[in-house]
Amino acid sequence: MKKTLLLLIWLSPGIIYAQGFMVNLNGQKQIGMGHTGTGLLQDGASVVFNPGAMAMLSENYLQAGISPLFFKSGFQGAGASGTAFVKEKVATPFNAYAVWGPKAARWKVGLGVYTPFGGLIDWGSNWQGKYVLESLDLKAIFFQPTVSYKLTDYLSIGAGFVYNHASVDLQRAIPVSGPDGNPGQARLTGGGRGYGWNAGIFIKPSSKFTIGLDYRSQVNTTIKKGDAFFSVANSLQANFPQPNTFMAGIPLPANASIGFGYTPDAKWTVAFDANFVGWHSYKSLAFDYASNTSTLQDTYSPRNYKDAFSLRGGAQYKTSRKVAVRLGGGYASTAVNDGYVTPEVPDANRYYLTAGLGYKLTNKLDLDFSFEYEHLFSRFQTNIESNLSGTFKSNVYIPGVSLSYHW
Amino acid sequence: MKTFNKYIYFAATFALFAGCKPSFESPKKSEGTADFTRYISVGNSLTAGFADNGLYLEGQQNSYPSIIAKQMALVGGGTFTQPLFTEAQANGSTYLKLTGFNPNGTPITTTVTENNAVRGKVTIPGFGDVTLLTKYSGDLNNYGVPGIKLKQITYAPYGNLNPYFERLLPGNPPTNNTTYLDFVTAKDFTFFTDWLGYNDALGYATSGGAGDVLTDKTQFAQLYTLSISKLTEKGAKGAVATIPDVTSVPYFTTVTVGAILGAVQKANPQAQALYVNARATVDITNTTYAPRAATASDLIVLTFPTAKIGAMVTSPVGMVPYGLTPYAPIENQYVLDNNEVTIVKDYVTDYNKTIKAVAATKGLAVFDAYFYLNGVKANGLLIDGVSANSSYISGGIFSLDGVHLTPRGYAIVANQFIKAINSNYGSTIPAVNISNYRGVKFPN
């Protein structure tokens, strides 16, 4: 009974998962426990959660997981001018890690491939805000080779280099009609890259307590030569030169985390993470077109995001030698100031609840399921740039599964 | 493994959530203290859905009363029927279409004449020829009659002179003798919008102060009071709109003195000024006109054939270039000179005082179109990512004739009426989604 209570206590203070277009789906065991992991030694996901913890892992890992993400967002226009819901589309954040080091060595090397940022949202071409955004598909895949070294039995450190491969596909309607009365269409697609690093420290003051500190740097990502397609009535086409390219950059924010782990006995693991995201880096979204006209100017949209934080908690209970049950939750503050909320990221403060189930298929093979429910608080907004005015509401459902081989 | 299955069920219940999208409370539906069972719209071309210098099916389908009625239906309003042209005669009175641009960027418009609804022509003695349109009979809620002035609503023979009114009446000219006011009030109604009065000033303004006269202020007040009394005598509630500042529309702001002079000076740097035939004073009784150099306060009409400028014409002093000397000034009908502007503004201000005062005595909702459209002219609009302004063609609100609106413009007007109605009667008519309505159609 006491233990059940403990579990509930961990659930009640909200925890966090994501703000803005950050996607914290970096490992199924960690998702199940409310995205905690900075101060724990769970598995190969330490590559992202805390490279410093890698050298402390008792085994080597090869693992991969996927978290199909169902983002259900709705909009109700001010003055009751109608409601719109995003289309059923499934984003597929994934994570894959390899961690290896000789059994007796004080070091380990690792590689992580994961998707910490992204967004997939499709409002369709017939909603109130179609001239602001029809759809956005933004992906960032981080590749992170990492090394970790155990300085003493109590302290290990680690660091990795981050290469980001990003892609964007943005569509919106242009409010000039062709002869059929239908609006024009703009589509911006392209790929870009960015670089950064991830470093962490892991401390083990006792056999029961663990502490982790992690810092992931800002990753400035630039799309140098994306394709800009504009489809308008022929008589206007000269105003929207084709072919055309654009340049755009986005500074993916830095993350600082501190995490605590408590393992009172062989069955229980409890964790708490606090996370700070330097979203202030995202000042504007600017598109610089290679060919400009008086109609097609470079655009500069202020975003002025603010730093955000999240608090996360979770627990794992091993009901048997083979089965582990996990629960967790969190609260995340929004990165988006009032007036800056857009349909591309209908952000708001949010809480989330997670659950997970681990099953040891064999001594060396783990099958882990995770499920997450995220609720964004209803937010009435009038955007300063578009005057799009209304209430956004979003819920997110994220099942996930991973397979880990360890030896 | 047995316990494991139990957990799978547990996981499955979680997964069920995955079908749920966020929900919004339906806005509460209320007519407030109004009753929208039978809504009628009274007014002129703007009310009829006139656009691009014609009344045609697409314009009618996007008239602001039809948009308001659709939204009213969401809170319990009744059906709303318009005197639509048939699909076979969809181009109605004929209208202007944008067909391209000249190399200098000026638009080329062409009149669409096929599939029109012209049924013939009749000569009315003492008036002239009236082109007749296919009659409409049947239910009627939108009584908008293009061209009608407030001054004409009690004039019995008017049904023989205005083809848009004539087509709504059962009889053939010259037998019609139902006044507009009697016609619209013949059948009971519970709610009305009334946007009459614009033509009482616009006719004078668009003819450069030459082809029409302003309706006398006192007569305007008498007729406005009479019409509102009649519209409200059986308890109907309603909304009225003020008359826009005629100089806020692109018909007067697109072809400017500066632009014409600039073009002239490109070819002929010696040209110093344009000359217009202008009213000598702001005294309405003094009809003296004299040539003088034009200034930026003189408004040239959109339909002015700019090719006339500089063409050699005869004058008292021999052949001179048109518009560039005091001997052959730009003719009166193409110019609303600054004194005429002052006169029109004075009349419109007075008409609007009447409209607001009469509306106040009856507790009617008021959409202040004068204030609103001047605001649009000064600041533009930004709605759901769409910028709109009062510029010709690119502004998206005004249709190709520079006076009447595009579907987007009419939708914006509908929302302003809805706002005024909701605020006056406590109703909750939902606003319409502007993104669904187009601006000017551009050709391929």
What's the average pLDDT of chain B? 92
Query: What is the CATH class designation of the largest domain in chain B?
Result: Alpha Beta
**Helix/strand order of chain A:** HHHEEEEEEEEEEEHEEEEEEEEEE
Q: So what's the overall shape of chain A?
A: elongated
Task: Return the string of H and E elements of chain B.
Answer: HEHHHEEEEHHHEHHEHHEEEEEEHEHEEH
Radius of gyration of chain A, Cα only, in angstroms? 23 Å
* CATH homology superfamily of chain A: Outer membrane protein transport protein (OMPP1/FadL/TodX)
Quick rundown:
The complex is a heterodimer of chains A (407) and B (444). With 407 residues, chain A is mainly beta. Chain A is 6% helix and 57% strand.
Q: How would you describe this protein?
A:
The complex is a heterodimer of chains A (about 400) and B (about 450). Chain A has about 400 residues and is mainly beta. Chain A has a single domain, classed as Outer membrane protein transport protein (OMPP1/FadL/TodX) (Porin), CATH 2.40.160.60. In chain A, about 5% of the residues lie in helices and about 55% in strands. Chain A contains four helices and 21 strands. Chain A has helices at about 1-10, 30, 45-50, 235, and strands at about 60-65, 70-75, 85, 90, 95-100, 105-120, 135-150, 155-175, 185-205, 210-215, 220-230, 245-250, 255-260, 270-275, 285-290, 300, 310-320, 325-330, 350-360, 365-380, 390-405. Chain A has a 14-stranded antiparallel beta barrel with strand order 1-5-6-7-8-9-10-13-14-17-18-19-20-21. In chain A, a hairpin with a 5-residue loop joins strand 2 and strand 3 (about 85). Chain A is elongated. The model of chain A is unreliable at about 1-20 (pLDDT under 50). Chain B is an alpha/beta fold and about 450 residues long. Chain B folds into two domains: about 40-250 and about 340-435, Rossmann fold (3-Layer(aba) Sandwich), CATH 3.40.50; about 255-295 and about 300-335, no CATH class. Chain B contains 14 helices and 16 strands. In chain B, strand 4 and strand 5 form a beta hairpin. In chain B, helix 4 packs across helix 14 (about 405-425), helix 8 packs antiparallel against helix 12 (about 340-360) and helix 9 packs parallel to helix 12. Chains A and B meet through strand 2, strand 8, helix 4, strand 19 and strand 20 of A and helix 1, strand 2 and helix 14 of B.
